[in-house]
Amino acid sequence: MTKNLLIVDDDLPFRERLSKSMEKKGFIVESYAKFSDSLKRLNDIKFDFAIVDMRLEDGSGLELIKEIQKISPNTRSLLLTGYGNIATAVAAIKSGAIDYLPKPAEIDQIYDALTNFKEILPPPPENPMTADRIRWEHIQRVFIQCNRNVSETARRLRMHRRTLQRILNKHAPRE
C-alpha cells in the first residue's frame, strides 16, 4: 500500500516536525500551510492519508476534509485542533474524518490514529444471549445485590413485588 500523506497546518514549526517524523515512519509527505494550495494539489494527486488542522489561514479544516472526501473518498483524514471540544469532534467525524485529536498531539498518537484500521466496535458475538436471558440475569444480579430481599429488589427494578416473585420462581430462559 502506498503511503501518500497530505499535511495541512499553518503552524510552520509543527508542520515541519510532523512531516519529518512521518517520513521516518515511511510516508511520502507533502505539506501546505493554506487551504487553497492544498486543494489545488488534491486535484492532481490522490492522497492515502491527510492530517488537517482545524483553523487555517484561508479556511476551515472541516471544509477541507469535506473536499478531500468528495475528491478522494478513500483518503483517511485526521483533524487536529487546538480548540478541542465535543462539538468539534462530532463535526470532524460528520465531515469525513476518521478521528480527531486535540493539539498538542504526540507524533505516535497521530500515527496510531491514522493507521489504525481496526473497527471501532467489536464484531457481534457468535451466540448472543436472548433478550429474555439478559433480563433474567439482570434481575438475578439486582436480587443478589439487595441481599435477596424481594421487596427491595422490586422497588429498585420498579416492578410489582408479586411480578418479581413469579419471575424469580421460574427457571432461567434458554440462552
Descriptive overview:
47% of the residues lie in helices and 17% in strands. It has helices at residues 12-24, 35-42, 61-71, 86-95, 107-115, 131-145, 150-157, 161-169, and strands spanning 4-8, 28-32, 49-53, 55-56, 59-60, 76-81, 99-102. The mean pLDDT is 84.
Whole-number count of domains: 2
Quaternary: single chain
Radius of gyration: 25 Å
What share of residues is helical? 40-55%
- Report the sheet-strand fraction: 15-25%
Low-confidence stretches: none
> What CATH architecture label of the largest domain applies?
3-Layer(aba) Sandwich
Terminal Cα separation, in Å? 44 Å
Mean pLDDT: 84
The shape, in one word, is elongated
The ordered string of helix (H) and strand (E) elements is EHEHEEEHEHEHHHH
- By DSSP (H or I, 4+ residues per run), the number of helices equals 8
The largest sheet, given as strand count, sense and whether it forms a barrel, is:
5 strands, parallel
- The CATH class designation of the largest domain is Alpha Beta
CATH fold-level label of the largest domain:
Rossmann fold
Q: Which structural class is indicated by helix and strand composition?
A: alpha/beta
Q: Tell how many strands the DSSP assignment holds.
A: 7
| The CATH H-level homologous superfamily of the largest domain | Response regulator
Q: Strand order of the main beta sheet, please?
A: 2-1-3-6-7
Quick synopsis:
This protein has 175 residues and is an alpha/beta fold. It contains eight helices and seven strands; from the N terminus they run E-H-E-H-E-E-E-H-E-H-E-H-H-H-H.
